[in-house]
Design goal:
The chain is of the alpha/beta class. It has helices spanning about 45-55, 105-110, 185-195, 205-210, 220-230, 245-265; strands at about 1-5, 30, 40, 65, 90-95, 125-130, 135-140, 145-150, 155-165, 165-170, 200, 235-240, 270, 280. The longest helix has 17 residues, at about 245-265. It binds zinc ion (2 copies).
């Protein structure tokens, strides 16, 4: 299994010279299994570049499976600009949960209403399917996908993808319920993520910033590190960077996080997710 970060930012795209290293596109991560199944985690603005890459590398039609954590705009806003969806013969399936009164399909169609965008969802030439989870585990090609409900002001899912003898957990947009992990939510998450090689986790704020933004649905590095250590994770990618944070600030998060891990004498490899970075699992 191989993963690539196409968008690492939270809330809103942040292009510019001060975000070149960690990237300005909103959430999108590509997973490729060894049998070449394409799984896409979220459809933030990063999915536009992924679409261009798919078009330049694929010879025949393209089939992809798009797991949506939740339908806040930064996790779906790139899809109207995903060119493979405009091409007949391609096929994409969305997976997720309904959010409040809107179905997954309704939320995706909403942002492509004619008031906001010239092409409606049902006018796309590719075949588009929607699957809302009705059981705990589903199979996509050779991958096994499970989910866990996160603490966020929306119905938001973390995903675990097990394939090729390894696993990745994608847990963005998530706020602590119990900072010391001593509660049902955190203990359940630790069981869910247990033994995964890579955890991609929300760390939008510093701990100090978090004190002023409780209830906004996001985490800080020390919390993500403690979760990763408790779940026996090998590598932790801090993700969903705050649009207010430039490369220097995010680099300081990374340095702080590595020092925090060193003090706790663990072998966890922690880093801040960089747009364009690839990881072989
Ligand atoms: Zn978000
Ligand atoms: Zn959100």
């Amino acid at each position: 299994m191989r993963i690539k970060f196409w968008g690492t930012r939270g809330s809103i795209p942040t292009p510019g010279l001060s975000t070149l290293r960690y990237g300005g596109n909103t959430s999108c991560v590509e997973i490729r299994t060894s049998d070449n199944t394409l799984i896409i985690l979220d459809a933030g603005s990063g999915i536009r570049e992924l679409g261009r890459s798919l078009l330049s590398s694929s010879k025949g039609s393209i089939e992809g499976h798009i797991l949506i954590s939740h339908t806040h705009w930064d996790h779906i806003q790139g899809f109207p600009f995903f060119i493979p969806a405009f091409i007949p013969g391609n096929q994409f399936t969305f997976y997720g949960f309904r959010n409040f009164e809107k179905s997954l399909e309704g939320a995706l169609a909403g942002q492509m209403d004619h008031v906001y965008f010239p092409v409606r969802l049902d006018q796309l030439a590719a075949e588009i399917h929607f699957k809302e989870f009705d059981k705990d585990i589903l199979t996509i090609g050779s991958a096994r996908v499970s989910y866990y409900l996160m603490n966020h002001p929306a119905v938001c899912l973390a995903y675990r993808v097990d394939c090729d003898g390894t696993s990745v957990v994608y847990a963005t947009d998530s706020e602590p319920v119990a900072d010391d992990l001593d509660g049902e939510h955190e203990q359940g998450f630790i069981m869910f993520a247990k033994g995964a090689y890579l955890l991609i986790h929300d760390a939008m704020y510093s701990h100090d910033e978090y004190q002023k933004k409780r209830g906004w649905g996001h985490s800080y590095p020390e919390y993500a590190i403690r979760l990763a250590q408790a779940a026996g994770i090998n590598r932790l990618a801090l993700f969903h960077h705050d649009p207010e944070h430039d490369d220097n600030t995010i680099r300081s998060f990374e340095e702080f996080s590595r020092a925090y891990v060193r003090i706790s004498e663990s072998s966890l490899d922690v880093f801040c997710a960089e747009e364009g970075a690839e990881i072989a699992l």
